[in-house]
Amino acid sequence: MTNDEYVRTYLNLIERFTNGELTAREFSNRYIDIYLDDDKAPNEEVFRILDYLFAEADAYCEPELRDEVRGSIDEEQLTEAAVKTAEKLRDTR
C-alpha cells in the first residue's frame, strides 16, 4: 500500500465524520478500532498525525459521562481535532 492509499483510508473516515455521516461516538469507536488494528504506518510523520487523533478519539465522551471523566472532550473538540488531522494528512501526500 502506498503512502497515498494509506492516508486516503484515514481521510475517508475523517471526512465521513466531518461531513455528518457519522456521529462523534461512531467515529471515535471506528477510528480507535482501525488505529489499534493497524501496524502499517508508512512513516513517522504519518504515525504522529494519526496518533494525535487517536488520543482525541479516546478522550471523547458522551455528554452524560463528560463530567465524570477527567480530560474528556466533546463533539466540537473532536471535530476540530479531526479537521486539523485531515489538513496535516493532506500535506503528507
Explain this structure to me?
The chain is mostly helical. Helix content is 71%, strand content 0%. The protein has five helices and no strands. The protein has helices spanning 3-18, 24-36, 44-59, 63-66, 75-91. The longest helix is centred in the last third of the chain and has 17 residues, at 75-91. The radius of gyration is 13 Å and the shape is globular. Residues 9-89 form the Colicin D immunity protein domain.
Give the secondary structure arrangement, pairings included.
Elements: H1 3-18, H2 24-36, H3 44-59, H4 63-66, H5 75-91
Helix pairs in contact: 1-2, 1-5, 2-3, 3-5
Secondary-structure element pattern, one letter each: HHHHH
**Average pLDDT figure:** 93
Secondary structure: number of strands: 0
User: In angstroms, what is the radius of gyration?
Assistant: 13 Å
Query: Which regions contain 5 or more consecutive residues with pLDDT less than 50?
Result: none
Q: State the separation between the terminal residues, measured CA to CA.
A: 13 Å
Report the total helices.
5
Classify the beta-strand content into a percent band.
under 5%
Largest sheet: none
Structural class of the helices, strands and pairings?
mainly alpha
Report the principal-axis shape. Answer: globular
Helix content: over 70%
